[in-house]
Amino acid sequence: MEDKRYLAVQNGAVPGEAVKKDENTRRGNWGNQIEFVLTSVGYAVGLGNVWRFPYLCYRNGGGAFMFPYFIMLVFCGIPLFFMELSFGQFASLGCLGVWKVSPMFKGVGYGMMVVSTYIGIYYNVVICIAFYYFFMSMTSLLPWTYCNNQWNTKDCSGVVGTSYANATALMSNFTELANRTVKRTSPSEEYWKYYVLNISDDIGNFGEVRLPILGCLAVSWVVVFLCLIRGVKSSGKVVYFTATFPYVVLTILFIRGITLDGAINGIKYYLTPQWQKILDAKVWGDAASQIFYSLGCAWGGLITMASYNKFHNNCFRDSIIISVTNCATSVYAGFVIFSILGFMAHNLGVNVADVADHGPGLAFVAYPEALTLLPISPLWSLLFFFMLILLGLGTQFCLLETLVTAIVDEIGTDWIIRNKTYVTLGVAILGFLLGVPLTTQAGIYWLLLMDNYAASFSLVVISCIMCVCIMYVYGHVNYFKDVEMMLGFPPPVFFRICWRFISPVIITFILVFTVIQYKPITYNNYIYPGWSLVIGFLMALSSVICIPIYAIYKISKSEGTTFLERLKNAVKPHHTWGPALQEHRIGRYAPTVSPSADRGVEAPLHEKEKETETEKKPEEISLTIQGSNGSTHNPDTTA
């Protein structure tokens, strides 16, 4: 009895709660399906929904950006989201292990790991800055409220009340200010630039490490590690709060935002389309990359999270719910952001397009400015930045779990599975060390460089190759049968068409047009030097180059006397490909009853079908008996 209680605790059950047996006792499963949906929502709904999507709208013509965004969502985003969920759930393996489907393409899995590594490094830096603002909000007066601080310039103009340290200095400089064109800045923008970042003048001028930011980075990685100390068993409980609370704060800020003077102008800028920008391929490229960035396609996280589902879970339903929730959140956050931008523009006397920084600065400039206008502003500031922390952590959990799961699945020994916590600790420590350069005075330059190159168009390439591999190398007929065996129904016709034709074609054309109209990255008025752009391209290529390198390696190691024979053997599914559990390996995946079965050798397809013919009806019936969490139940087994 004591052993059973111990195992129950190990499987994530609360003491006194009915024991829920994991379907896959070796890898473990989610405690229930709500945990998976909330984790996936937390993974997809992240910091990008607050600062990336509104920024892309602001840069790409306001409401005009909505058109390519939703086109990409319908024809690329949701279909690929469903493909990745079904891919990982079917094999119950992470982003490396699933490529048993066609071993030559395992480089795609390594590419996903590289992308997740880059994102995980700089994403936690953004989270740590949110931590810093959170700690700095523990005061009676927010430090970015007025312009009377030592870091403020003469161009500072606050929205609560314009104040300079010395009124005499203001009068003596009035004539000079009137005779030249000066862009007035908000105290929150100057606090961000000159105090938090203490930004240097060049990407190569690292300056000093910002110790407060470094300390917050350590705190951020410690929190991520503690929440993942027991894998999905612990993170699955945390997301009940981290995935829901941000919506409460967003709603409060939305109500406050639309009551401010000038908010309607910001919302009009957000919704009014500038149709001429639709002809710019970069707008479409940004739409595509934002879909992949926001939904998490090609990061490997979706495959990883789905691999902990029970085999017969309805991941088709989950993919629709999660995708729609994510994109609705992006649009909702845009209303909150642009109402604040409209208010700031009204107070500063400038256009909406001129009021905020690019990238993460939008969340750390526009929002902090709004918070100074709320009653008891430090309280709302604490809540808001706590929300940002939760949004970031939800994504960071999955990024770290993706890398850890890939490593553990690849090694696959009982020892590594038992000591998964040490793998998690090792990856977290390495991620912290690699993030240290981003806490220097030039850190923001490197952060934006990684964001623009390491996790942008390489995602498009990886997604396209994955789609082509599954549909045309493994075969669409085989995959459709796999999905039907898992879900009890085949993929809808629309998704089959998108998987085979529409998604790969659209992605390919967008990639081509984006390369043609490529423009070097800039940050405000700073132009990145050529050597930094080379580093950016190398980061982008480092994930994609894994695909041909591993393909060449696999072909060279495959059996065969000719190149074609080696190629054929390299793309052929591994003999262990298929459902992870024996009870789910039916039909063409059913093992042979001959002695060779003990050695993992499969019988020919026609023999398997004969051997399983007598069991076919019971298995088909079992596919239709679904529990509340989408999993099937055998009447003879306990839940």
Model description:
- The model is unreliable at 1-19, 162-181 and 595-639 (pLDDT under 50).
- The chain has a single domain (50-158, 215-568), classed as Amino acid/polyamine transporter I (Up-down Bundle), CATH 1.20.1740.
- It has 27 helices and 2 strands.
- Helix content is 63%, strand content 1%.
- The longest helix is centred in the middle third of the chain and has 35 residues, at 377-411.
- The chain has 639 residues and is mostly helical.
- The chain has a two-stranded antiparallel ribbon.
- The protein has helices at residues 2-10, 33-44, 47-59, 66-91, 106-136, 167-172, 174-178, 187-197, 211-227, 232-242, 245-257, 263-271, 281-295, 301-306, 315-348, 361-371, 377-411, 414-418, 420-435, 443-454, 457-487, 493-516, 530-544, 546-557, 563-571, 605-611, 616-623; strands at 522-523, 526-527.
- The chain crosses the membrane at residues 36-54, 66-87, 108-135, 211-229, 238-258, 291-308, 320-345, 379-400, 421-448, 454-477, 497-518, 530-553.
- One of its GO terms (cellular component) is plasma membrane.
- Na(+) 2 binds at residues 44, 49.
- It catalyses: glycine(out) + chloride(out) + 2 Na(+)(out) = glycine(in) + chloride(in) + 2 Na(+)(in).
- InterPro entries: Na/ntran_symport, Na/ntran_symport_glycine_GLY1, SNS_sf.
List keywords for this structure.
single chain, about 650 residues, mainly alpha, Amino acid/polyamine transporter I, two-stranded antiparallel ribbon, 27 helices, 2 strands, disordered N terminus, disordered C terminus, amino acid:sodium symporter activity
